[in-house]
Design a protein that fits this description.
It is a single chain. The chain is 68% helix and 2% strand. The chain has 685 residues and is an all-alpha fold. The protein folds into two domains: 226 residues, no CATH class; 260 residues, no CATH class. The radius of gyration is 30 Å and the shape is elongated. The N and C termini lie far apart (88 Å).
């Protein structure tokens, strides 16, 4: 009989199927331990795809290994091999428990925590069956049972972490495992009795358990008043990391004393089991196959390596610094010892994660300092994505070169764009116009200045009230603004009343301001004094990026319609571009396109031109760009605060972004109400 699979391949499969499957499961766990944290540091799609693939393959490989071990056990006519397979089986429970660095890929995985319980039960029963079959002749029963104990503890940890995260998503509080002391509501009641409750604290109730964390550890996030911009950024990044770890890792349960004892028991079980196995092999109780013995040692030492990495990650983390801060308040010998370790060991290591900036070498940003924290020590992606409407229109409207290889590439692109949406990939055409810019210290200072001056005193939660308060604050506090108060009130009428009367939907307002920013940007192209325009344009392009490529971050905003107005503007501009001479330079075509916008009949385009003309005519460049930037900051903050905490948590799992950073910073700024009247951030003169 003819066989499709060669006999040599069949023999290799028979001898290596169980070994290969278990080793594959182990190496996937190794990959996740080392690289899963990269997804909070990068918004690169390839990084996300690699971690997504490994996360899905991890459970599949472990399940496949369980099936192979169960079906092969007892069929080897080799007692030593059967006993080794029984010893390998509980290692799969360790793999099912997963690494500390990732318990969930998406927020929805946390809500399915109940599925882990029957999974733990049935997988444990299947592996117990493998062990029971070998019991009469199995002299490796002691190390096997110890690994079972460690595996059950690890699997239980994962289930508990998913449960705690699901409670956070549903707005429930798990006081023992997340916050053992006062909750936000209790502190709110106390502040009410002391007549110190204000609008800022009421906002903290809406964020649920994250508000608890902020109130519980406010002394840690806010070590002193008048922080420098870099210190304020570092506090925000730490809160960013805390938020990510509570939703996607085991950090929430590893602060619990019971969990720490269980973790120590699991690690001890693996160490003792390894010692027993080494002594049994030296006593020659079994004559193990060399390859099988090597696989067994790899599993043992691999488990110890993974556990050691997890312990070190926990010890040298911000969570441990918080715990040591609490313990060091005790004046006992233990408290002083913890304080010594904190100052001499923990804090110097965590300094590596602190935010740092260096001079930017890329034009036109050479006057600014960019975030230069090394990738391995970042807590978020550290960059700003952006889309520009004019560039999109120019890119799609210009005729493509007619060479054969360009035609082939264009054809393949078209096929790819048609197929990709069926696999959940959307907006890929826009992806090629996405630009990533560095995160600048000047931009952070500009945003913080608005947050710290307006948020603590803000009583109105709608966008109209925010912009009105921002304009009034500038007129009252800055003499040079009082000179142009009339022009400011005119702009207030143009922007605010349209928002209030719903003349423009929110997406139309973004496009209107985006085009106005572009018109003003080109008008000040040769003005050296208008240096701030580069930063404001980054905000403008970032808001368009959120509108077109991150609609989930805009979905909670009233009046949001993702692409309707964008499609109208796009359809109006593309025919004009296609009629132009294909040899004309992009810069010249851009100028002609902006002139076309001025004569357009679309309300959004006409409004953008009117706003840009008034800004260019009535304001000096520095004041103009400060005003435009102020409006963008208020719109960004408005969108950020309209999102649910879970939406920001989902965003953080993909590298985060400016919107989540601003939202977390706004929560920290709102704590100003409980301090003496000192600002959280020291503004530069």
């Amino acid at each position: 009989m003819v066989t499709i699979i060669p006999s040599r391949v069949e023999k290799i499969w028979e001898s290596w199927n169980v070994r290969g499957a278990i080793l594959l499961s182990f190496f996937i766990q190794m990959f996740l331990v080392l690289f899963a944290p990269s997804r909070k540091r990068s918004d690169n799609m390839l990084v996300g795809f690699a971690i997504w693939s490994a996360y899905l393959l991890a459970d599949w490989a472990a399940n496949f290994s369980v099936g192979l071990v169960t079906s092969n056990n007892g069929n080897n006519n080799d007692t030593a091999k059967d006993n080794l397979m029984a010893l390998w089986a509980p290692f799969l429970l360790l793999h099912f428990g997963g690494p500390d660095t990732i318990t969930a890929l998406n927020l929805e995985d946390n809500l399915l925590w109940l599925r882990q319980i029957p999974g733990l039960l049935f997988k444990t029963l299947a592996l117990v069956y493998v062990f029971v079959v070998t019991v009469p002749q199995n002299r490796l029963w002691a190390p096997t049972l110890l690994i079972f104990v460690a595996g059950i503890i690890k699997y239980s940890e994962r289930t508990c972490a998913l449960y705690v995260a699901s409670n956070m998503i549903l707005g429930e509080e798990s006081k023992e495992s997340v916050l053992p002391n006062k909750t936000t509501k209790e502190l709110i009641e106390e502040l009410t009795r002391q007549q110190r409750l204000d609008f800022s604290y009421k906002r903290l109730i809406d964020v649920g358990p994250l508000g608890d964390i902020l109130m519980e550890y406010r002394d840690y996030f806010w070590p002193h008043t008048n922080q420098s911009p870099i210190e304020a950024l570092n506090s925000t990044e730490v809160f960013c990391e805390f938020t990510y770890e509570l939703y996607y890792t085991k950090a929430s349960i590893l602060r619990n004393k019971v969990a720490c004892i269980a973790r120590f028991a699991a690690l001890s079980s693996v160490v003792v089991a390894l010692g027993l196995f080494i002594s049994m092999e030296k006593d020659h109780l079994y004559k193990f196959d060399k390859t099988d013995a090597a696989v067994t040692y790899l599993l043992f030492y691999g488990a110890l390596f993974l556990e050691t990495i997890s312990v070190f990650r926990l010890i040298f983390s911000e969570w441990m610094l918080v715990i040591s801060n609490e313990s060091s308040q005790n004046d006992s010998y233990l408290g002083r010892a913890i304080k010594f370790c904190q100052v001499k060991i923990l804090e110097p290591i965590l300094v590596l994660q602190r935010s740092r900036f260096s001079k930017c070498k890329n034009t036109p940003y050479t006057d600014f300092e960019e975030l230069s924290t090394p990738f391995l020590f970042r807590r978020w992606c550290g960059s700003i994505s952006g889309l520009n409407l004019i560039k999109i229109c120019l890119g799609e409207g210009r005729p493509k070169k007619q060479y054969l290889h360009f035609k082939l590439v264009e054809f393949l692109e078209g096929v790819f764009y048609q197929i990709a949406p069926y696999f959940g990939a959307k907006d890929l055409k826009l992806l090629k116009y996405k630009v990533k810019s560095p995160f600048f210290l000047d931009l952070w200072q500009f945003i913080l200045a608005d947050l710290t001056s307006l948020l603590p005193n803000m009583r109105n939660d709608d966008l109209r009230g925010r912009i009105h308060a921002a304009i009034d604050t500038r007129i009252e506090s800055r003499a040079h603004y009082a000179k142009v108060a009339g022009a400011l009130m005119s702009l207030e009428g143009f922007i605010i009343h349209r928002i209030g009367d719903n003349e423009y939907a929110f997406d139309e307002m973004i496009l209107l301001l985006h085009l106005s920013t572009d018109l003003c940007y080109d008008n000040d192209e040769h003005n050296v004094a208008a240096n701030k325009r580069h930063l404001v344009k980054l905000l403008s392009d970032y808001m368009l990026y959120l509108l077109l490529m991150q609609p989930n971050m805009m979905s909670e905003v009233p009046g949001f319609a993702q692409k309707s107005e964008f499609q109208r503007i796009y359809s109006a501009l593309i025919p004009f571009i296609r009629e132009e001479d294909p040899n004309i330079r992009d810069h010249e075509l851009r100028i002609r396109l902006l002139n076309l916008i001025k004569g357009s009949g679309l309300p959004t385009l006409r409004g953008a031109c009117l706003l840009a003309e008034e800004l260019n005519d009535e304001f000096p460049p520095d004041m103009k760009w400060e005003f435009i930037g102020m409006v963008w900051v208020q719109m960004l903050l408005f969108v950020a605060e309209k999102n649910r905490p879970s939406s920001h948590a989902q965003h953080l799992s993909k590298g985060g972004g400016l919107i989540s950073l601003v939202w977390l910073a706004s929560l920290l700024v709102r704590l100003n109400g409980d301090r003496e009247e000192q600002p959280w951030f020291q503004q530069s003169p």
